[in-house]
């Protein structure tokens, strides 16, 4: 380990001495200038009180050669002399401007004197050629075909609505859906008409039970107060059959529809065919849906 340290120390000292010797030799080479090169001195190196000396012959020659080299490097500039034109050539004859002589005509109109200028020329009246432009009026009615509008009846099934819409739109027929609420018949009442009062209604109930008709209900409020229900039926033919059986036992009956408010849809249809309800497209839809209704309505904007 000691030997390695000494070896490194010896190498550093040798490298330092070699570098120092090299720098001294370069300084000596720079300090010795050739004899034919003049001594250069900056203005700041001149003594303050030294009198100006005339430049030596070598300095004058050096400055002259420098100026000549700079003159050669610059591109020559061409200076054009002004062209002299004789005055006789400038004085050309110019034809005098001819001013028309205006002679006013004097006319007497009562006590007034009117002068008419001969140079005034009135323009001739221009008559437009109406045959060149021909305007043909166009109306919106001529551009758009006439539309005939219809609306369907109330429908509750959204699937049926979507099916009809797709069939109409695929055939180029305009359609718009409207959501609405309507009273829908949900069944049929078979009733004994309303009695004059509650007591009379109770007596009617007792008479029905004596005849073996026990499935009865009495309305205690509403439009059917004091009437007696003999049953509610979904189909009308069932209600008619029940009414006939009660009548054979000597009772007066009537059939009344039971209504409820339901959410549903109406379709508004725009067609260019006035006889749209008779078209094969609509006839085919009615075969699948016998209760489907259609009626004509005014178009929007009419």
Question: How would you explain this protein's 3D organization?
Answer:
- With 302 residues, the chain is α+β, with helices and mostly antiparallel strands.
- It has a domain at 148-297.
- The protein has helices spanning 2-31, 57-73, 87-90, 140-143, 158-170, 198-210, 236-247, 280-288, and strands at residues 105-109, 112-116, 148-152, 174-192, 217-218, 228-233, 254-271, 294-297.
- Which spans of ≥5 residues are poorly predicted at pLDDT below 50? 69-82, 84-96, 98-122, 130-135
N- and C-termini, Cα separation: 117 Å
- Order of strands across the biggest sheet? 5-6-4-7-3-8
- How would you describe the shape? elongated
Rg over CA atoms: 63 Å
Structural class: alpha+beta
Quick one: how many beta strands? 8
Strand percentage: 15-25%
Oligomeric form: single chain
Number of helices in the DSSP assignment: 8
Average pLDDT works out at: 74
Order of helices and strands: HHHEEHEHEHEEHEHE
Please describe the biggest sheet, giving its number of strands, its sense, and whether it closes into a barrel: 6 strands, antiparallel
- Share of residues in helices: 25-40%
Quick summary of this structure?
The protein is α+β, with helices and mostly antiparallel strands. The protein contains 8 helices and 8 strands. It has a domain at 148-297.
Secondary structure: elements and pairs:
Elements lengths: L1 H30 L25 H17 L13 H4 L14 E5 L2 E5 L23 H4 L4 E5 L5 H13 L3 E19 L5 H13 L6 E2 L9 E6 L2 H12 L6 E18 L8 H9 L5 E4 L5
Antiparallel strand pairs: 1-2, 3-7, 3-8, 4-6, 4-7, 5-6
């Amino acid at each position: 380990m000691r030997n390695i340290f000494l070896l490194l120390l010896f190498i550093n000292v040798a490298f330092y001495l070699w570098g120092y010797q090299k720098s001294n030799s370069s300084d000596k080479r720079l300090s010795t200038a050739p004899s034919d090169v003049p001594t250069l001195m900056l203005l700041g190196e001149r003594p303050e009180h030294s009198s100006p000396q005339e430049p030596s012959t070598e300095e004058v020659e050096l400055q002259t050669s420098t100026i000549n080299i700079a003159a050669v490097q610059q591109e020559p500039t061409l200076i054009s002399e002004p062209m002299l034109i004789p005055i006789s050539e400038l004085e050309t004859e110019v034809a005098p401007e001819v001013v028309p002589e205006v002679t006013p005509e004097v006319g007497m109109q009562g006590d007034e004197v009117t002068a008419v200028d001969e140079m005034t020329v009135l323009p001739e009246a221009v008559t437009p050629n109406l045959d060149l432009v021909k305007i043909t009026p166009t109306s919106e009615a001529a551009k758009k075909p006439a539309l005939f509008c219809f609306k369907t009846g109330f429908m509750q099934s959204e699937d049926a609505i979507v099916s009809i819409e797709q069939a109409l739109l695929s055939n180029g027929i305009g359609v718009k859906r409207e959501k609405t609420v309507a009273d829908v018949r949900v069944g049929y009442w078979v009733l004994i008409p309303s009695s004059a009062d509650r007591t009379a209604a109770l007596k009617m109930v007792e008479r029905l039970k004596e005849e073996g008709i026990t499935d009865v209900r009495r309305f205690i409020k509403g439009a059917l107060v004091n009437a007696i229900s003999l049953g509610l039926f979904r189909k009308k033919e069932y209600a008619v059959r029940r009414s006939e059986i009660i009548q054979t036992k000597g009772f007066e009956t009537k059939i009344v529809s039971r209504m409820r408010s339901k959410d549903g849809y109406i379709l508004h249809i725009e067609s260019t065919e006035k006889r749209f309800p008779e078209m094969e497209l609509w006839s085919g839809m009615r075969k699948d849906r016998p209760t489907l209704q259609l009626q004509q309505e005014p178009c929007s904007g009419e």
